Amino acid sequence: VFALAMAVAIIIPMALTTVVYQRKFRQGTLQIV
Questions:
Q1: What is d(CA 24, CA 15) in angstroms, rounded to the nearest whole number?
Q2: What UniProt keywords are attached to this protein's entry (predicted)?
Q3: Angle CA(30)–CA(20)–CA(4) in degrees, nearest 5?
Q4: What pTM was estimated for this model as a whole?
Q5: How far is CA 2 from the centre of its chain?
Q6: How far is CA 32 from CA 2, 9, 11, in A?
Q7: What is the DSSP code (8-state) at residue 28?
Q8: Widest CA span of the chain, in angstroms?
Q9: Per-residue pLDDT tens over the stretch 1-33
Q10: How far apart are CA 32 and CA 6, in angstroms?
Q11: Cα–Cα distance between 1 and 17 in angstroms, integer?
């Protein structure tokens, strides 16, 4: 259970980051900080 929770805690932020990255890239306002 703990391993699954850790996996979810890692995958969810990565997924959100990917969505935001693709959205910014699509809008052409991608800024690499």
A1: 14
A2: Sugar transport, Transport
A3: 140
A4: 0.55
A5: 21
A6: 34, 24, 22
A7: T
A8: 41
A9: 899 999 999 999 999 999 988 887 777 765 655
A10: 28
A11: 25
